[in-house]
């Protein structure tokens, strides 16, 4: 199965339109200090197999990393596990910033997702 992808401009348009989307940053804690997409939650890539059932099932879930490579593989893994509402942010946060879209300081993590 092919991984569904979304580019930064399309994601920003969906966010602006108020679409019901979960944003999941799968980068390491060290990478997070560089900034995070507004409204994103953090789930380090290595925790995905343990926490995949915490992902929302009632909306699209966009995974992203630095360049889009790790999140592509994470989406592929989730697809293999029967979770098909995931999309990869093509180009990762690098593409997001390149388009001039906002990043914010990471917030303290809440228990659970969305």
Structural account:
It is a single chain. The protein has 114 residues and is α/β, with parallel strands linked by helices. It has a single domain (5-98), classed as 3-Layer(aba) Sandwich (Oxidized Rhodanese, domain 1). The chain is built from five helices and five strands. It has helices at 8-16, 29-32, 48-51, 69-80, 92-98, and strands spanning 5-6, 21-25, 41-42, 60-64, 86-89. It has a five-stranded parallel sheet with strand order 1-5-4-2-3. Helix 4 (69-80) links the parallel strand 4 and strand 5 (86-89). It is globular. The model has no long low-confidence stretch (mean pLDDT 93).
Brief descriptors of the model:
114 residues, alpha/beta, Oxidized Rhodanese, domain 1, 5-stranded parallel sheet, 32% helix
CATH superfamily descriptor? Rhodanese-like domain
CATH architecture annotation name: 3-Layer(aba) Sandwich
The number of domains is 1
Binned strand content: 15-25%
How much helix, percentage-wise, in residues? Answer: 25-40%
* Helix run count: 5
- What separation lies between the terminal Cα atoms? 27 Å
Strand order of the largest sheet: 1-5-4-2-3
Task: Just give the CATH class.
Answer: Alpha Beta
Helix/strand order? EHEHEHEHEH
- State mean pLDDT (0 to 100 scale): 93
Rounded to the nearest angstrom, the radius of gyration is 13 Å
Q: By helix and strand content, what is the structural category?
A: alpha/beta
What best-fitting shape do the alpha-carbon axes yield?
Answer: globular
How is the biggest beta sheet arranged? Answer: 5 strands, parallel
The CATH topology:
Oxidized Rhodanese, domain 1
* DSSP strand tally: 5
Q: Regions with pLDDT < 50 over 5+ consecutive residues? A: none
